[in-house]
Each structure stands twice: as C-alpha cells, then as structure tokens.
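Revision sheet: structure tokens.
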Amino acid sequence: MSDEITHPEGELIAARERARRQWKLDAISTGTGVFLALFMWGHMFFVSTILTGERGFNWVANMFEHYWLAQPTVVLVTVVFFVHFVTASRKIPAKLADRKRLKKLGDDISESEWNISKEDRAELEKVRAHKETSLWIWQVRSGMIILALGSIHLFIVGADVAQRTFGIGEAMGINAAETMARVKDGMWLLYAVLLFMVEVHAGIGLYRVTVKWGLGTRIPIIGSRITRRMAGTMETVVLWFFLIIGFLTLLVMAGVLEPPLAFLLATGGTQG
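Predicted:
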C-alpha cells in the first residue's frame, strides 16, 4: 500500500525537478541570447564608426584596446556565445519535427479555410498561432550558420586583439586599414551573410522573448500593454535599422562607398 502512494509522489517530485531544470536552462538561453543581441547591436555601432572614416574607427578601436575593454570582452562573448548555443539547441531535435507538423497543419487549415464554418474557424485560430513556427525554424537555421561563421569572426577578432596585447608580429591590433583589406580580399561575403543571419536571428529572438516573457506587460509612460502585433512591429523596425547600418558599413569597408559621415571628423586645416 505504501509503495502505491510513494511511487506517484516520487514521479511527481522528479517531474517538478525536470520542470525546474528546464526553466533554468530556458532562463540561461534567454539571458545569454539577450546579452548577445545587445552586444551585437553595440558592436554594430562600434564598427559603423568607419562611416566617419578610418580615423574615427581607429580612435575607437585604440580606446577599447588601450583601456583593456576589448580583451575581456572577446573572452566573455566567446564563452556566452557557446553557452547560448548549447542551451538553445538542446530542444531542437525533439521540437523540429513537432513544429514542422504544426506548420503543415496550419497551412492545410489556410488552404481549406473557405469551407470551414465560423464556429470551427474560431476554434482553429488556436492552431493558426503555430504558423509562427516558421520564425522558430528560421531562427534555428540562422543559428547554425551563425555558429559556423561567428566562430570564424570571433577567432579573427581574438587574434587581432591578442596580436597587440602580447606583442605578436607587427602588433597592430584592430585597425581600419587591415580590416578593410581583409574585407576587400573576399571576406565581404562572409560578413554579408553573417550580418544578415545575425540580424534575422536577433530580430526573431527579440520577438519570441517579448511574446514569451513580456506579452501583456504595461509600458511605462505610454501606458499601453505589449501586444503580439507590437512585438512584430518592433522586430521589423530593429531588423531593418541594423541591416541598413550594417550594409552601409560593409560597403565602406569594401571600398565601394566613400564614408558618408567623414565630414563629422573633417578639420579646417586641410588647406595648405
């Protein structure tokens, strides 16, 4: 009799422990993802200083390296990068098949919607929400590409920082001339793909985090609550904003476009 009572209790305790462990992993995945997204957007602003010319880019790069901001940042971002990959990808094998099946169900509903009654349509709207699985699938695909290309980029940046920190070779560190030469020599394709995938991945992640953790939250000052539509609009605005800045930066790096903001650092002593 006691075994019949304790066995279900043991299963319940084990289920609670699994749920608690999954929640912790979800929190780590979300936290590291938000950190990386914020870092990448900050990194984008740093790299976009090339829009003011080589002098502006080099000034910022030298400041980060001189005050030992770049060195620990490279190590921290690398660790967080791989922690995020491990925690975010743990559910991929199980979820991918389920989400593809739900997407197909949603597509079938859309195709046959003309002969669905109003009552059934209201019920099926619950399933329609799973069409957002397309975003999740794209996030998985972009994540795989980012893992490969991002690792290469982290290695290159880490090597540049280590070069100056430990006096290896010419010890130039991160600088505009070497970075632009690298882009012109063919790295522009890697950076173009990486840029697009990072912004898509971060944009979708921002949307999904907002929907999961912030839907219905009241926004201070404005007073309105966060809706799914608002989250989608925010994702679109952020995506296009950073894509435009990123590709303008890449065009300058590749020598296709002159720095459009060079006038900001222009000096009046260029005559004579």
